[in-house]
Amino acid sequence: MRLIIGQVHRNVLALASSRSCFVIGDHLPFRMLSLPRASGFHQTAWRGSQTVQDSGSTLTLASLEVQSKADYVKKERGPRTGGPKPNSRDSAFSVKPKKVSSLDLKPAKSALPKSPVVKKKLKIDEALFSASSFEELGLPPLLIDRLNKEGLTSPTEVQSASIPVISQRHDAVIQSYTGSGKTLAYLLPILSEIGPLKRAREQGNSEKRSGIEAVVVAPSRELGMQIVREVEKILGPDDKRLVQQLVGGANRSRQEEALKKNKPIIVVGTPGRISEISAAGKLQTHNCRFLVLDEVDQLLSFNYREDMHRILEHVGRKPSTSSSSHILGPLARRSDRQTILVSATVPFSVIRAARSWGHDPVLVRAKSVVPLDSITVPRPMLSQGDPNSDSPTMSVNQAAVDSLPPSLEHYYCTTKAHHKVDTVRRCIHALEAETVIAFMNNTKPLKDVVFKLEARGMKAIELHGDLGKLARSTVLKKFKAGEFRVLVTNELSARGLDIPECDLVINLDLPTDSTHYAHRAGRTGRLGRKGTVVSICEESEAFIMRKMRKQLGVAIKPCEFTEGQITVHKEEDVE
Ligand SMILES: Nc1ncnc2c1ncn2[C@@H]1O[C@H](COP(=O)(O)OP(=O)(O)OP(=O)(O)O)[C@@H](O)[C@H]1O
């Protein structure tokens, strides 16, 4: 059965637009069916750990003196926050009919935006912010001053949960959905302990340290540089030399010289370059107190095996000379550093790894902190998953649940392979998206898609790993500045990339699994902003979208784009 929901009559918008504008109305049937199922699923999946927490553990948010968000008071925000938003995260799940798109009721614009483009500001979701303030979390005053100067006045929920845990020296796995502020969730407690903004220590109680005190590892240059910029922003212009990038593709000898000259306290880099410089004896990390693996599930994959092994063996580990450390082996040396593992998708393999490296490791999520020892393989998945799947796949599926921001809308449409680019164009027009990231699985066809989009009057640019470091950063700069409407890219951009203005993600090739879907989708809807994800596939692939919908526990609705409008179909078998 075909449904066209809530169309605004052409005449209504005739003055504002040359095209008619389509408003998607009530998504209730899908939400009612899928969301309670997802949340029930979530609760059961983690019930084992909750029981342990209730019965034995003293480690709860309350015990860490983190307040509940119930009495959240709206605060004046800086320019980044975009003002208050009436509907909270909870209300996004409510049964109230909702006009979905942030993209609705806007005048149409030409396909070829003039440069520079004046972009709409997407509102962030205030419900994402925690009840506690940075002061309540015990951050040092100098650091809070710097945050305020950057317009950051309240922590997000995952920051509220993580900061006390890391400050209490726990090893931690931080899991929270894409765009929820995980970077500052680990950077702020680290910068409270090291560098010029750290908290004042009582006299005689100060540990004397020198050299690099924190190492942050990220899987791509782009993500590495993004983290560097975040640290620089907090340290301020006078101290930004205290963070050093060690990303691949950049000049290695210059990086080595900077290490010698600037004496950084924190380095951020990709696994290959960090381990290369470390192996050459140019990176002294034995005094290091913090090791962060951002996008840990990707870093622990086979591709990074050797480099990650070296990093884990060397960072924060003094050469073992004493007889006791010899007897106790790795356990004795492990305590020298705090290990923090971060991702929106945390499969059980990461939990297992964290247990073996950490002491008192905990899993930190937006509203809960549980000891890792209490977590078991998520049994309920066995009955929920595909009966033909084996357990590692289930672990991956479990990882993807709760990784998606609740503010996202998901659709898929089917078309013939040679009509895909035209569907992209129609989709962008119908949704009136301004900043679009289109994902493909391979590098080669990217250029062709860019060419075809440009030929159809849509400014597009490609980004992939075969471009040099400089070219990659230029492409990103231009895209962020609004010079291009569509970034056509591959898996390289799926993780961590923070482009708050991105209002539409398109899968021009289907992602390989639900974890990849979650990270691609997470490039839009950052910090609770509105965002739409559209997957374009061939008819024969539609079953994959239905499978992903089940695995992710979100409604991915079938649709088509015709005459400048999105038409949403009802699918009888939506569960
Ligand atoms: N407390 C805060 N107040 C306002 N903005 C914030 C706050 N914390 C983070 N942000 C902003 O939110 C955006 C998303 O943060 P971040 O990139 O850390 O998300 P993430 O959870 O790591 O996402 P991903 O899983 O995709 O890597 C960034 O633009 C960041 O500057």
Describe the protein's architecture and organization.
β7 and β8 form a beta hairpin. The protein has helices at 10-13, 28-45, 47-55, 89-92, 141-149, 157-167, 182-191, 221-235, 252-262, 271-279, 296-299, 305-314, 323-328, 330-334, 348-357, 380-384, 391-400, 420-431, 444-455, 469-480, 514-521, 542-552; strands at residues 172-175, 214-217, 243-246, 266-269, 290-294, 338-343, 362-365, 368-371, 408-414, 436-439, 460-463, 486-489, 504-507, 531-537, 556-562, 565-568. It is globular. Helix content is 36%, strand content 13%. The chain has 575 residues and is of the alpha/beta class. It is built from 22 helices and 16 strands. Residues 80, 152, 154-156, 159, 176, 178-184, 344, 496, 498, 500, 522, 526-527 line the site of adenosine-5'-triphosphate (ATP). The site of adenosine-5'-triphosphate has 21 residues, from α7.
Produce a short descriptive summary.
This protein is an alpha/beta fold and about 575 residues long. It has helices at about 10-15, 30-45, 45-55, 90, 140-150, 155-165, 180-190, 220-235, 250-260, 270-280, 295-300, 305-315, 325-330, 330-335, 350-355, 380-385, 390-400, 420-430, 445-455, 470-480, 515-520, 540-550, and strands at about 170-175, 215, 245, 265-270, 290-295, 340-345, 360-365, 370, 410-415, 435-440, 460-465, 485-490, 505, 530-535, 555-560, 565-570. Mean pLDDT is about 75; it is low at about 1-115, about 320-335 and about 380-395.
